[in-house]
Write a structure and sequence with these properties.
536 residues, alpha/beta, Helicase, Ruva Protein, domain 3, Rossmann fold, Cathepsin B, Chain A, six-stranded antiparallel β-sheet, 13 strands, ATP hydrolysis activity
């Protein structure tokens, strides 16, 4: 095949959904967090919608692969043309139950017994139905009846409906109002932005070439591809695959603007006419994102609107004693929730909730939202290198500590929450008065590498680790699941690159940075204002 001539181990831009190529752009991260939270909190009914080609199927496959088989039982239904009886038979078959009967009552009884057994064993059952916009009203009513299987306190099955935007119109029909009212979590997957599109193309190239980049796309080519695709992964893949073929025929190692234009022209011939409306939708999404960006910038900078508070230069200097006394006055649990939710808001994740009668913990609240909390040491510059929202640990009078969310950094100041002595923005010197180091960073262990306990799971985790190290050019050994001296050396080499302690141990900070450098993990940055000045 032509892509083999570049040294790719597999086609980098194949259209077939492949979880191995998963790239979590900002919209995909947000959708992933919503799905994981909904399933872990047993929300019951969940809806994921998105335009054709946004990556919905790849995402749900990855999600199901990540769920621990010791804790979850999962099934994925692809066939949208089933009858009510066919659906029930297919569901039972996917869970390994009797599916030969044509008696609906018998099939329901079998499924209910299975769900009760799994519930008693402490396991969560998850059913995903893809292409749900093609289901008939009768089949959707059968889905609702399946959801009726519950105890007095628990939903016995979590049902995820995945489909195109037409799914919303279908669910809004009068005869499906009971089903529609039961959907507690909804998320519409948006296309990628330009930065994510560039990172996505590079990620697929590096993954398919074992961490190398035998082919590059010029900035002009990437602009053309983004403008045409509107940030839809499937269209990006289609154009890039044709551009790859052009590069092969011209014996070039870079896709130029002209080559991208030719690839787009060729792909347009095979697309249905209604595709032409997509860029306008992408434009609308882009306009909305720009509005949000401007609004966010005004909040951070405090200088766009005349009604904003005074700038740093005109606000009174921070009193260390008053600042620490104010932090200490806030109850510990109240402070924990306020600071944690400030960081979660930066991730665009739902706010964490305390359980009545039980003290909340930082790690527990992070787990609520499918995130990992990792303590890190170092000063403000070290956190700036991590470039992710953090929770600063501040010692207060009386021997305790309070948390302060670090949300942004620029050359002279930092953005914090909750407010300290009435200020949400401090100079670096003011922060140094109350904080001497020590923080916790929230991140997402998408592949679950850090939480694998059993031997077989650990081996699979090491394989994933070796793949990631290959992608960043720190490992060229076999992907065999053995944490060998060579693998440890690869970890140490990566740590040296990232200015971390080069001990060869896979700690949370190392894994967080490895996810980011290998592609697919992009937390909300701390240095937003500085970065955006150079963006296109």
């Amino acid at each position: 095949m032509y892509w083999e001539s570049f040294g790719f181990k597999e086609a980098p831009f194949a259209l077939t959904p492949n979880p191995s190529f998963l790239f979590l752009s900002s919209p995909h991260q947000e959708a992933f967090a919503h799905l994981l939270f909904a399933i872990e909190s047993r929300a019951g009914f969940i809806e994921l919608s998105g335009e054709v080609g946004t990556g919905k199927t790849t995402m749900v496959r990855t999600l199901l692969n990540q769920l621990d088989p010791e804790t979850y039982r999962t099934a994925l239904i692809f066939n949208p043309t089933l009858s009510p009886l066919g659906l029930l038979q297919e569901v039972n078959s996917e869970f390994g139950l009797n599916c030969d009967s044509c008696d609906m009552r018998e099939l329901h009884t079998t499924l209910n017994a299975y769900l009760l057994e799994e519930n008693r064993a402490g396991r969560t059952v998850v059913l995903v139905i893809d292409e749900a916009q093609n289901l008939s009203v009768e089949v959707l009513e059968q889905v609702r009846l399946i959801s009726n299987l519950e105890t007095d306190s628990d939903k016995l099955i979590q049902i995820v409906l995945v489909g195109q935007p037409e799914l919303n119109a279908l669910l809004s029909r009068e005869e499906l109002r009971q089903l529609d009212q039961r959907i507690t979590v909804r998320y519409h997957l948006r296309p990628m932005g330009f930065d994510d599109t560039c990172a996505y193309v590079r990620h697929r190239i590096r993954f398919a070439a074992n961490g190398q980049e035998p082919l590059t796309f010029s900035l002009g080519a990437l602009r053309r591809i983004f403008k045409f695709s509107g940030g839809l992964p499937r269209l990006i893949n289609g154009v890039c695959d044709r551009a790859l073929l052009l590069a092969y025929t011209k014996e070039r190692k870079e896709v130029s603007t002209e080559m991208a234009a030719l690839a787009i022209a060729d792909l347009r011939k095979s697309l249905p006419r209604r595709r032409r409306a997509v860029p306008m939708k992408a434009l609308s999404a882009g306009v909305a994102l720009c509005i949000l960006a401007v609004a966010g910038f005004s909040v951070l900078s405090g200088s766009l609107l005349p009604t904003e508070p005074a700038t740093l230069e005109t606000t009174p200097a921070l009193s260390r004693e008053a600042a620490l006394a104010g932090l200490a006055a806030a109850p510990e649990q109240q402070n924990l929730l306020a600071s944690m939710n400030a960081v979660l808001a930066a991730w665009q994740a739902p706010a964490a909730q305390a359980t009545p009668g039980q003290p909340a913990t930082l790690r527990g609240l992070a787990r609520q939202r499918g995130m990992t909390a990792t303590k890190v040491s170092g000063n403000l510059d070290a956190l700036a290198r991590l470039d992710a929202p953090a929770l600063l640990h501040v010692a207060v009078p009386g021997g305790g500590e309070r948390l302060v969310a670090l949300l942004s950094i620029d050359r002279d100041s930092v953005g914090v929450a909750p407010a300290i002595a009435g200020k949400n923005r401090l100079t670096r010197a003011e922060l140094a008065q109350i904080w001497s180091g020590g923080a916790t960073v929230l991140w997402k262990d998408f592949h679950g590498i850090s939480s694998r306990g059993k031997a077989a799971d650990k081996a699979a985790g090491v394989k994933l680790l070796q793949e990631l190290l290959k992608q960043v050019g720190c490992y060229d050994g076999a992907v065999n699941g053995v944490f060998s001296v060579q693998t440890q050396g690869g970890v140490a080499e990566f740590q040296r690159r990232e200015q971390l302690t080069a001990d060869g141990k896979l700690g949370g900070q190392t894994l967080m940075m490895l996810y980011r450098r290998a592609g697919g993990f992009f937390p909300p940055g701390l240095q937003t204002l500085t970065h955006n000045q150079g963006r296109i």
